[in-house]
């Protein structure tokens, strides 16, 4: 078990931009099913927002609350407590689990209602979209947990279960078309990253209006941290790009200079303390 994140408000749009729809690459923002537009014509603003503010900020904490924490190794509990910035009370999690399971059931009902018009995908698109991927990731995880496995009852949520299986099958089929990734050591990966060409900073640009609002400037040493958990572990670096959707820091790593990209949504940037 571990905390992780979905594609979120930066990775998904960046992948779409760097690998636009083509004969080789599909899209995570397919057009509505009954439209005559080209694939990928539907932009992902609200879809991306959904993956962040519903999937990441609502469903993900709910999944965390039903984890079988009492069965976790002490080292894992300690590590997650440091990330959260507060102690993990095992008794409190256990006491609150029935309420969380009930709430989980309510969210499954929302999905069942969304699928009640016989649509194939959640956003009624021509193909699998980021909406499906982001929700499926968490529900497929929850489905394997003994604490909530009983919720995934085909007699109560037949459309949701069928949709889950459909997305799983689609992802499996897509994986089968890909070359398996090579395994690299940490040292090799670090060398490849620092030696690879990086995207020019002007792709993100520097929005002076937003910089003024945030109290930062081009070239400032700043720190960036999530706005939910992990706040005690900011990334420090030189601010080299800033827009309304993204910011970039230059960070000196053990193997060389890195460019760390962060979404604006879900992260806080401020001048680093001297």
From TrEMBL:
User: InterPro entries given for it?
Assistant: DUF7962 (IPR058268), Glutathione-S-Trfase_C_sf (IPR036282)
For this protein, the record's Pfam families field holds: DUF7962 (PF25907)
Q: Which residues form the DUF7962 domain?
A: 73-173
Origin superkingdom: Eukaryota
Q: Which Gene3D superfamilies match?
A: 3.40.30.110
Protein known as: DUF7962 domain-containing protein
Q: Can you name the source organism?
A: Psilocybe cubensis
- List the taxonomic lineage: Eukaryota, Fungi, Dikarya, Basidiomycota, Agaricomycotina
